[in-house]
Amino acid sequence: MRLSRSLFLLVFLACAVLMAIALFMEHVMGLLPCPLCMLQRVAVIGVGVVALLAALHNPAGRTGTSIYAGLVILLSAAGAALASRQLWLQSLPADQVPACGPSVDYLLEAFPLMDVIMIALQGTGDCAKVSWTFLGISIPGWTLFAFILFACAMVYLLFRRLLAANQ
């Protein structure tokens, strides 16, 4: 199996595991996702779908691989920005945390989708609450780490020939 196909498949599987963990945390542990968490999930799903399509398509040329890798990098950058925003909200002193807002379900019922996205991007007090950590790192910290890994894997895929030529 070609390296690019294996790497895209690995990214897809990692995204599937991240979503399984997110659903476990929500439905078994009872940790309800905030609006920024929901947007990060969309980014993880987007990365996973693009990576799966790339693995299934298995483009032979450099152009196809570059397009898929570029899309994964863009989605990873968006996800990393969302995770960074949430980490910033979590770092605020208690008196500067925005007020808690209504649930995502209510927002989707009461507002147009673009308004819901804008509200979610601003973040709420729910987004600033640290409800779970592993090794001292909160959920958006681990999500940021995953997005950085996905982007690095794709950068490696794009430039591996140049790296091999220089050695």
TrEMBL record:
<keyword id="KW-1133">Transmembrane helix</keyword>
<dbReference type="InterPro" id="IPR023380">
    <property type="entry name" value="DsbB-like_sf"/>
</dbReference>
<dbReference type="Pfam" id="PF02600">
    <property type="entry name" value="DsbB"/>
</dbReference>
<feature type="topological domain" description="Periplasmic">
    <location>
        <begin position="25"/>
        <end position="42"/>
    </location>
</feature>
<keyword id="KW-0472">Membrane</keyword>
<keyword id="KW-1015">Disulfide bond</keyword>
<keyword id="KW-0676">Redox-active center</keyword>
<keyword id="KW-0812">Transmembrane</keyword>
<dbReference type="GO" id="GO:0015035">
    <property type="term" value="F:protein-disulfide reductase activity"/>
</dbReference>
<feature type="transmembrane region" description="Helical">
    <location>
        <begin position="38"/>
        <end position="56"/>
    </location>
</feature>
<keyword id="KW-0143">Chaperone</keyword>
<comment type="similarity">
    <text>Belongs to the DsbB family.</text>
</comment>
<dbReference type="GO" id="GO:0009055">
    <property type="term" value="F:electron transfer activity"/>
</dbReference>
<feature type="transmembrane region" description="Helical">
    <location>
        <begin position="139"/>
        <end position="159"/>
    </location>
</feature>
<dbReference type="GO" id="GO:0006457">
    <property type="term" value="P:protein folding"/>
</dbReference>
<dbReference type="InterPro" id="IPR022920">
    <property type="entry name" value="Disulphide_bond_form_DsbB"/>
</dbReference>
<keyword id="KW-0560">Oxidoreductase</keyword>
<dbReference type="InterPro" id="IPR003752">
    <property type="entry name" value="DiS_bond_form_DsbB/BdbC"/>
</dbReference>
<feature type="disulfide bond" description="Redox-active">
    <location>
        <begin position="34"/>
        <end position="37"/>
    </location>
</feature>
<protein>
    <recommendedName>
        <fullName>Disulfide bond formation protein B</fullName>
    </recommendedName>
</protein>
<dbReference type="GO" id="GO:0005886">
    <property type="term" value="C:plasma membrane"/>
</dbReference>
<comment type="function">
    <text>Required for disulfide bond formation in some periplasmic proteins. Acts by oxidizing the DsbA protein.</text>
</comment>
<feature type="topological domain" description="Cytoplasmic">
    <location>
        <begin position="161"/>
        <end position="167"/>
    </location>
</feature>
<keyword id="KW-0249">Electron transport</keyword>
<feature type="topological domain" description="Cytoplasmic">
    <location>
        <begin position="1"/>
        <end position="7"/>
    </location>
</feature>
<keyword id="KW-1003">Cell membrane</keyword>
<feature type="transmembrane region" description="Helical">
    <location>
        <begin position="68"/>
        <end position="88"/>
    </location>
</feature>
<dbReference type="InterPro" id="IPR050183">
    <property type="entry name" value="DsbB"/>
</dbReference>
<keyword id="KW-0997">Cell inner membrane</keyword>
<keyword id="KW-0813">Transport</keyword>
